[in-house]
Amino acid sequence: MERQRVVITGLGVVCSIGFSREAILRSLQTQSHGFRFLAEYAEFKTSKVKIGAVIPGFDTASPYPEDWTGPSPSGLRKESLRGLNPHSFYALYSTRQALAEAGLEATDLDQETGLFTASAGSIRNIHQNLKSMYIYGVRRTNPMGIVNSVVGTLTYNLASIFRIKGSSCGFASACASSAHALGFAHDEIALGRQKRIIVIGAEDGDLDSILPFAGMHALSTSSDPSQASLPFDVRRNGFVGSGGAATLILESLESARKRGANILGEILGWGQASDGYNPAIPHPEGDGVCRAMEIALRNAGVTPADIAYVNAHATGTLVGDIAEAKAIGRIFAGRSEMPVSSTKALTGHPLSMAGALETALCLISHAAGFTPGTANLDSVDPQCAHLCLPRDNRPAGSGLILSNSSGFGGANVSLVLRSGSAA
């Protein structure tokens, strides 16, 4: 059977640099970050973390979802709201954005429309629900406490809200999760099993989900928001955690053309590989991400010379950036002018939604004619200096995009993307 080509017909993003295409593009163009001093981090017991990311336009601080606010009314009944958590609330908005851009109505989401999601669950809701159970007993436990908290909660809620009747599942490979979701969604469509899949990555991005990383010494301890997230910079000392939601509508090229949809980009292929090294630390030579890139290029039917830009996973940790830089250097040896950058310098690290968010950011920036630089990159780590790491944005080349994501356990995913209408 001939494989279907897989295109992207809609995207929606809610993140630390904005919740509209215009705001996000403006932040990318001006290299404006989404970080600020957070007293709840700085004043927490023994915490050295001071800087975090917030989601503009949303207020999910209340423990009661009916009190939450966003840029527009949720339109949900109280019973539905009580099954949500902050990241599902963000995803509701980003998915409506993506469907609108794709020109899809609720009635278009037939049995050949699926939903693939990625999130770590809602640690805050788990904490609240268990605390209530231990204090008041099981008879006072929130009846929606499982649905609104555990891994899979994003699938449970969004599949119900959008009446999904096609394939649906969640992915849990830490910070590679939404990249895995995109890759497997690509295959599901390419093999003709579904004509369309909604892919969502989302995270609460709050104290409960971010601050535990301080125990691993993985978070930035900078006191300056503009110098907190420094991928590839010798001054880096950890990542800035963030959250939100990113939704992409994947569709067969045949389906998209049949209904006259606008095509934002195409996923040409993808690859995955594991380090087999350590549960929390990447292989020091980047072996897994190197093999993931090799497989992705082969799967896409392209060569390293066809890639015009690499969006690196680079989070700003001491060992992670170097390992990935070594891997990129091995794959793209001799490509001394090919730009490599990390948009996490602006957005922070949104954990499992990283792959979906960065795919969206690549498409947004390339549509505007540029590739993002790595903001605030003033002192390149000597062990990364073999790469072309521009600080400033550059004009977009005519080639393809490769985007990397890596997670705990040495899970690595690479996606090969073409921006713009499919030829």
Q: How large a portion of the residues is in β-strands, by DSSP E?
A: 15-25%
What is the annotated CATH architecture?
3-Layer(aba) Sandwich
Q: Helical content, roughly? A: 25-40%
Order of helices and strands: EHEHEHHEHHEHEHEHEHEHEHHEEEE
Principal-axis shape: globular
- Tell me the span between the first and last alpha carbons: 21 Å
Q: Supply the CATH superfamily name.
A: Thiolase/Chalcone synthase
- What is the typical, i.e. mean, pLDDT? 96
Number of helices: 13
- The strand order across the widest sheet is 5-4-6-7-1-8-14-13-9-10
Radius of gyration: 20 Å
Counting helices, strands and paired strands, the structural category is alpha/beta
Largest sheet, in brief, is: 10 strands, mixed
Strand runs, count = 14
Summed up, the domain count is: 1
The CATH class designation is: Alpha Beta
